Amino acid sequence: MTLSDVGPLLESWKAVRAVDHHCHPLRRWPFQLTAVELRSAFTEAIDPAIAERHVIHTAAYQGALHRIAAELDCDPSEVVVLGRRNAADPTGYARQLLGRTATEVMLVDCGFASPDSFTLEEQQQATGIPQREIIRIETLAESLVNDASEPREWFAAVREALRAAVKRGAVGVKTICAYRASLRLEPVDTDALGVAFSALRLRLERAQPVRLTGNALCHALLFEAAQACQELDVPLQVHCGFGDPDEDLAETSPLGLRPLFVDPAYRGLRVALLHCYPYHREAAYLCSVFPGVSMDLSLTIPFAGVEGVQAMREALGLCPTSKLLYASDATRYPEVYLVAAVLHREALAEALGELIDRGVMSRSAADAAGRQVLAENARRLYHLPNGPAS
Ligand SMILES: [Zn+2]
Fold first, then answer.
1. Residue 335's pLDDT is what?
2. Distance between alpha carbon 102 and the CA centroid of its chain, in Å?
3. Is residue 71 part of a domain?
4. What CATH number is attached to the domain comprising 303?
5. In angstroms, what CA-CA distances link 331 with 135, 383, 390?
6. From ligand 1's centre to the CA of 231, what distance in Å?
């Protein structure tokens, strides 16, 4: 079907500055980008054979090349796009692409950073876009194992560190439990927790890397984090669905988080479900029945080709537009932020445009729904100040 309302919606939202509620640090520029590096940014695979031989044949990457080429006003071939970007002034180039994302503020999870990543202060300076911090709970907890002799002491240290982080300006907490354990939450077994914590301590004493894995540690920590978020009045972001090749995708459905939604101990907790694919319909269901739950389609939109648009349509099946959030989940290269932002607005306009065409929504209601998704919902969820009137 042809959707006559897509263009007018996109045009109307041009003035809307988005809140990117889940993204990661950029790589410090200047740098030259190879074909395999750019391809690797549009797959979660870590086996180099995928980037070398297969990513070029995905709808996601072809779509990404077309969006980058449109911005650079060049042919959408990989060779031409890379040639243009590598010959450009790095600062001007990055500013151009990031400017096109129309981002008001970036909420950044620094857990996925490398030595060549910007710090938040550097990123704010380099991009001109305000940055706010999201604390990755597992990374924080790993850094505090040394300070505790048993789990209760450890959790007390984690909560104290979270309190300090929020005091210095962090606006949320994120858990990556989905790729360290199962997301099917189980009640904490204190014996198993004690044994697992002792094993962590032993690794530390042997100077081995400390890495939180398994249900006993990760679920107990997640429950602690949920309580801390309630007390600190910040949302808990939960990685759901795809997004990391370490995970067992079968164990990453957000439905496993049910204890957080039904146990009165967590009443009032705000949970933001990230990525969600292929469980975006399950996520939309949770948004439709539990007041504290929101969701996004980050990563789904740039990685799933036109299925990202389909995911948007399906999310809007049950999820109220007051609970859907915009995020790029972008990292490292300005191209990724650009592609995610452009495709997200397109998917939103197509899904809402269809609702107008089908007589489900008025044009003004669809326009307002897009503004909720791009910025208003996140401002409310994270208690961010109101942006410039748009
Ligand atoms: Zn992410």
1. 98
2. 17
3. no
4. 3.20.20.140
5. 16, 24, 27
6. 24
- Asked if 22 and 298 touch (Cβ cutoff 8 Å), the reply is yes
What secondary structure letter does DSSP report for 367?
H
Low-confidence ranges of the chain (pLDDT < 50): 389-390
Q: How many structural domains compose the chain? A: 1
Q: Find the 295 Cα to ligand 1 centroid distance in Å.
A: 13
Residue 133: beta bridge partners?
108
Q: What is the mean pLDDT of the chain?
A: 95
The H or E element spanning position 68 is helix 59-72
Residues with CB under 5 A from ligand 1 (ion): 329
pTM metric for this prediction: 0.96
Q: Rounded distance, CA 338 to CA 126, Å?
A: 16
Q: What separation in Å is there between the alpha carbon of 274 and the centre of ligand 1?
A: 8
For residue 329, the CA-to-ligand 1 centroid distance in Å is 5
pLDDT of residue 249: 92
Residue the block writes with tokens 């996109």: 10
For residue 365, report the distance from its CA to the centre of ligand 1, in Å. Answer: 30
In the reported structure, the alpha carbon of residue 47 is separated from the centroid of ligand 1 by a whole-number distance in angstroms of 19
